[in-house]
Amino acid sequence: MSSSVTQADLVEDLRQLPVPAGALVMVHSSLASIGEVTGGAGTVVDALLETLGADGTLMVPTFTFPVSGRLGFVFDAQQTPSYMGAISENARCRPRAQRSIHLHHSVAAIGPLAGELATSGGASAWDGDSPMGQLFARDGWLMLLGVPYLRLTAMHLCEVDVGVPYRKRRNEEGRLRSADGREEPFLSVSLPPPSFGWKGNDFNYLGQLMEDRRQVVVGPVGNAMARLLRAADLMATARSEYDSDDALFLKKGREYTALKKGHTISRGERAMCVVDESRMFKRM
Q1: pTM above the 0.85 mark?
Q2: N or C: lower Cβ tally within 10 Å for the chain?
Q3: Average pLDDT of the chain?
C-alpha cells in the first residue's frame, strides 16, 4: 500500500474483514487513525458505500451532545453539523442521507433503509424502536473504524435492555427548526449518568471479552484497527454476562480495559486504535 490510502485500498481492506454486502452497518470512526487518505473523509464514505453495495445501508452517529445543552441551541436536521468526526459529517451532508430527530443523539443513514431508520421510534434514541434499536431488530452490524469500544454507543441500548439502575429516563424539551425555517418545541428522552459518584463506563471490558470469544472480527482498514461485530451478538452477550456481573458496563479502576489488538492512542478526549502510530494522520 502507498503512503496515501486510496478508495480502492479501503474497499479491499473492508472486504477482507469482511464487511457484508447488503447489510445494515453503523460505523463509529476516526479519520486520523486511517492515515493520509486521498480525498479525505469523502473517500472513506465512498468506500463504505461501495463495499455495502446498492442493497446495503450505512448508518453513522451525528450526535450533537457537545453543544446541544447550551442555552439557545436549536436542532436543524439539515444544517446542524455532526460532532462525531469528519467521516460522520461527510455522510450526513450526502444528498441521500436521512437524519433522525433527537436533541443529543441523532443518527444519519444512507441506503434503502435510510428513510425507515431516520423516522423509526419516537422521542427516545435508546429503546428497541429507535434508529439504533433497529440495528438489533434487523440483524445489523457495528463497526469501530479506528476507535475503541468506549465509543460504541449501542452499548447504552444494552444497558437499557438489562435494566441497569444508574440510567434514569429524563424528558428534555428542545427546539427544532423545520425545513421552512419555523421553530417549534420537541421532546427528546435522554439517559444521563448519575450526577455524583460516577466513575464512567468501560465498554472496552465487554468488547475485549467478545474478542476473546471470537465474536468480533478485527483487522486493518488503512492504518485504522477496525472491529466488526453483529449487534445481536453484542446484546446476547451483554444479557448473559450481566446476570453474573451487574458492574459489567462500568469502569472498575482508574484505567480502562486495554485492548489486546492494535495500539490505542489518546489525544485529549479522543481515543484512536491504530496499526502503527507513526502512520496516523498528523495534521489535525
Answers
A1: yes
A2: C
A3: 95
Dist. CA 268–CA 219, nearest whole Å: 25
Alpha carbon dihedral 193, 194, 197, 203, in 10-degree steps, equals: -20
Cα torsion for 218, 250, 127, 185, to the nearest 10°? -110
Distance CA 38, CA 8 (A): 10
**Nearby residues of 259 by Cβ (< 8 Å), 6 or more positions away:** 148, 149, 204, 207, 208, 211, 273
Among candidates 147, 152, 169, 184, which has minimal Cα distance to 274? 147
Cα gap 4→27, rounded to integer Å: 22
For residue 283, what pLDDT is reported?
A: 60
The separation between CA 77 and the C-alpha centre of its own chain, rounded to angstroms, equals 18
As a whole number of angstroms, the distance between CA 224 and CA 75 comes to 32
With cell 480502492, the residue in question is 8
Helices (H), the chain: 7-16, 31-34, 41-52, 86-92, 114-119, 133-137, 155-162, 203-212, 231-242
The distance of Cα 258 from the centroid of its chain, to the nearest Å, equals 20
Q: Three-state DSSP class for 29?
A: strand
The x, y and z cell numbers of residue 42, run together, are 469523502
182-200 in b/e burial notation, b at 16+ Cβ within 10 A? eeeebebbbbeeeeeeeee
Amino acid at 101: I
Residue 94 gets which letter from DSSP?
Answer: S
Please confirm whether the linkage preceding 220 is cis (ω < 30° from 0). no
Contact by Cβ (8 Å): 222, 212: no
143: exposed, middle or buried (Cβ count in 10 Å: 0-12, 13-18, 19+): buried
pLDDT for the residue 1: 42
